[in-house]
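Subject: complex prediction, re-run

Hi both,

The earlier run crashed halfway through, so I resubmitted it with identical inputs.
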Amino acid sequence: MAPKKQVRSQKNAASAATPIATSAATTSRTATTTRDAPTVADTTVIVADVYKSYINDTPRRLKLIDAFMLFLVAVGVLQFVYCVLVTSYPFNAFLSGFSITVGQFVLTAALRIQANPANSSQFEKVSPERAFADFVFGSLILHFFAYNFIN
Amino acid sequence: MHFTTKLPSSAAQALPLIRTLTLITIAGAAIASRLFSVVRFESIIHEFDPWFNFRATKYLVSHDFYSFLDWFDDRTWYPLGRVTGGTLYPGLMVTSALIFHGLKALTLPVDIRNICVMLAPVFSGLTAYATYLFTCEMKDQSAGLLAAAFIGIAPGYISRSVAGSYDNEAIAIFLLMFTFYLWIKALKLGSAFFGALTALFYFYMVAAWGGYVFITNIIPLHALVLVVMGRYSSRLYVAYSSWYALGTLASMQIPFVGFLPIRSSEHMGALGVFGLLQLVAFASYVRARVPSKHFKVLVTVSATSLLALGLAGVVGLTLSGVIAPWTGRFYSLWDTGYAKIHIPIIASVSEHQPTAWPSFFFDTFMLIWLFPAGVYIIFQELRDEHLFVIIYGILASYFAGVMVRLMLTLTPIVCVCGAVALSNILDIYTNLEKPLETDDEDKTKKEEDQSVLRLGSMSKKPLIGVFSNWSRAFVLGSFTIYLFLFVQHCTWVTSNAYSSPSVVLASQLPDGSQHIIDDFREAYYWLRKNTPEDAKIMSWWDYGYQIGGMADRTTLVDNNTWNNTHIATVGKAMSSREEVSYPILRKHDVDYILVIFGGLLGYSGDDINKFLWMVRIAEGIWPDEVRERDFFTARGEYRVDQEATSTMKNSLMYKMSYYRFTDVFGRQPALDRVRNQRIPSAITDPSVKPISLNTVDEAFTSENWIVRIYKVKDLDDFGRDHAIANAFEEGKRKTAGGRSRSAPVGGLSKGKARVLRE
Amino acid sequence: MAVQLLRTTLLLAIVCISYVSAISVSGSRVLVVLDPSLKQEDYAVFLSDLDSRGLDLSIKSANDPHLGLFEFGERTYDHVFLTQPPTQKALGPNLLAKPLLDFAKAGGNIVIVLNSNEHALASVREFAVQLDVVLPFRDTKLVDHFMYDEQASPLLHDALILDPQTLLAPHIVAAPEDVAAKLYYPGGSAFALGNNPLIVPVLAAPETAYIYDPAEETLSSDSPFATGKQAFLVASLQTRSNSRITFVASNLLFSDEAFSKPNSFNRAFATELTKWTFSEKSVLKLESVSHRLLEDTNTTENPSIYRVKNDIAYEVSLSQFEDGSWFPYTADDVQLEFTMLDPYYRLTLSPTHKTSTAQFYATTFTAPDQHGMFSFVLEYFRPGLTFIKDKRVVTVRHFGHNEFARSFAIPNAWPYVSSIVVVAGAWVVFVGLWLFTGENSAKKTV
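This time it finished cleanly. Structure:
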């Protein structure tokens, strides 16, 4: 089983035809701009570079993942702001709501890493299909616990 | 086995079978060696905590799961009660209940007690398997089999998992090893699936044992060390993130744990490492994207600011009380003297004492010196997972040195390292053409201890050995002897030290036959049969669980020492004079007092020996009323004979222990066999006043006087002081004529008071 | 044997009869130990009063060989009226302090009447000391140079005339409405009382009285045994098990002579005092106790478990025994405590409805937000009335896991709930898209 998978993942890597270029998620962009204030000129250049290479070099699936992750970050931040500004009263609700976004985020990130053909060398035994199955498995557990915990 | 070495092709096929058989044998040996107590005594729950677990399991079996979760126990901690469902780790009970219902569904009705008694041995078999898997990840299968064999019979683990020792640790060690195995697997493969499995077993572990904090800290530590050593990989990210995100959310489902994972300092490390990993992962993305010049600027700025922010956040939250600071139990891990000063209740437990050095040898025998060798060998290879073993080894050694009880967590890693070292030695000294098969041979050798095999293998070596066959023979021979000794030692320790239920005591009669001392159960059944259903029994907390489990009576305090003040109250009642104790007893509706007294038989674990802890704990709450100093003689000795201080002699505990003790001896000197001191006897020495108890009546004393039960008297019917009433009952008449003519001085003031009252 | 048997059956019959007639809640068999020195004729009115109330008197001498308070461990009498011999003689082994205490412990009531001429016997003294009643020394007299009876003791001033308005215990003997009524104390000593909280003084000496020893001739003024209101003439004690014991300082208080004096309150006083001591009056009974959840009236009464913040209704009913039958007892000071180590509530119960025999009291309250074993404690201790004590332990449990408000029900939590739903929904969409996207080929739509 394992060798077969390896072959396939290598094929993926070839077909994807992406060099080492790993994408910086869109989140990184905002982070970069805010943190690196002193070198504004540089930053714009960097951001432009990053954006261009991202658009060009990222497989569509990864873009899909990135979109999902972005969405999760948005939901998480919204909840956190709500918690800080309004109320954290049903604390378990906040926790489950927040941790489902965090958990989903890291699981998706894991999927992204594993599915990224560029990383296939690190994951000898994990093919993208396997990775996706893992992802679904993990997510289902996560959803179950989150649902259980909110009540 | 010999065939396999000679016939490689068939050997390769037979290997899995042999391995399985070996593992089954190991599991069988592990179970069998834990049955000493059942064979020697009976199928009975041991010690203290298991009685509570047993009682809780019975509750779970007779009720449904939800009412178990909501269980409010009104038979303990009277009158506070205990939110039992929310303050226990339900994993153990749920496991037993599932087994019980599963067997019932298979039409195999087994008494729940037998399931509870046998649970620990069965799980020790599983532990052996988990250790095998874990060690296989570390070295190879031969080391795995060796480790499984070691953990199966290592006394350090047996001490907590003999049949009847129905405690959380019984299943927790299996879960510990299996979680670690899954973690290593997840890390190696970089698989979210194994990460999720790790989280699930972590959840199970959280449900089963408070020691889950060990996992909570060791995995992040491992991850942190990997990151710091520059060994960060995406695999680590996947494994750790999926474990932490799922595991933390899952662990919060346990009512007892609740919000702790984000509120207490013990769990902050895991959270911090989680955040760090996100940053590192993010940074490694960015690094690949951005020119290195920019990257450096980026990293330094963001890293420092984030670090500062995070630290400030944690410190600020801790100070403001959002995050609970380290708990006292945790402090006592760092500073062994801490507990003694601040929390005597923790220090009073013998298993929380620092470990004595011989006990390392006692509990692990030769493995303790193979352990460093194993660590060294692992260090030489130093793969990611090997770091884990090293960290685990270091941490566990330290903790085991601090607390006797944590010897338990050390034992598995000692077995693993010992097995690695030994199998390495065997690999070298039995170096044949086919290393795999030799390994296999070696381990089976160890397991079965069949000298025939060993002789056979040794006779082979001279044929192949290129140099110094003698040295090979010598090393192998000596290790064979060591292994023999190991097995012998383990068996001896198990049968002599760890197989006593402590509920039933055994002693040898002069003719060598065994004599069972069954005072505890005698007394508990007396309580069960002779006291009202709702009677409240006061005893020192050690016996709370047993009274609840065996006598089925309400207790004031028990081994779940959650309320220090309540325990101190009992301590105060025991260590004060009767006049002080009686109002406390009344306030808490105490009907009976139970004390353990070993003076007649020489049973050293009695209440007089624990008495100082009662005093200390009481002193912690009422420093003005109870003073430890008052219980020592002027020369600082703890005496119970005629030199005992008057505070000691007047304490309720002393009186209840030695009440009518001297009567047993008649004109002989009344010797306390535990403390080897003579109790002053009114019979031999007329100047001694015999101990009199005014506020309690002796209700029951067991055959060997180990358990003595006293009934608390009601208020006197006529409003008299108990001492006066008792003096009257005993016939010491107080003659009214004896009063002088000026007696009404008292009457005068009383009369005034009365006038005022009217 | 036959005689014994006969007697037992006879006693049984008497017991039955007495319960039917029910003059007293504890029975009607009275043992009157009348010392031979005291002539029965002198106390005829008193004795006939007792008899006419339906009490079954057996008048015996202390020397009677068949005198015994117990037979086969059972009380042979319900009440004892014990007088003292004038000289220092023993009362016999059956009337020592211990049997008397045992008798009271077993539910019997006792009246001890001291002899006006002599000090008390050692055994009675011992009995009194156990109850914290200090009897006077030998040959002492209570004198009062202001309120003495001029006819009876013009010289010695030891016969006093007291004002019954000064009676101390209305539940035992209420002061007469007639203010002119006098209480004659024809001579004798007085005793002092200790600190025993169970003692209820009934009659104290006047402020100007003191105890003195005529034999000493001089007044040992520096240490009189007791003076003024510290000297008591009549005092009662109710044990915790509601047996009643009364000490009377002089037998003459009950004599026909004292009864027949002008405006004498003595007869009524004797009647009320013996009625009280023999449990014929001021006897309370807890008819019923119940507690339940407030909202559902039809659930089982007296559940053993409540939950924190439950509304609890508590109801008791009290009866009073008076003149042979039970009546409602009405008061406004009946209190309930809801206690765990310390009272969490102390509520005064308000009278609600009454039946022909009992008065109901009720209150409602909300269980405190503290779990544990709580007790409903009803303690109604009033001097002269039967002690009412009732303690019922119930468990107050914490909220069950399903008794908290669900997150759906809390508006605050809606953002969180919706986020979970949204995340789960987005996840499904994502999974679907992922599967459809396939190998990089399909177009991306989000």
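Chain A has a mean pLDDT of 68.

- K.
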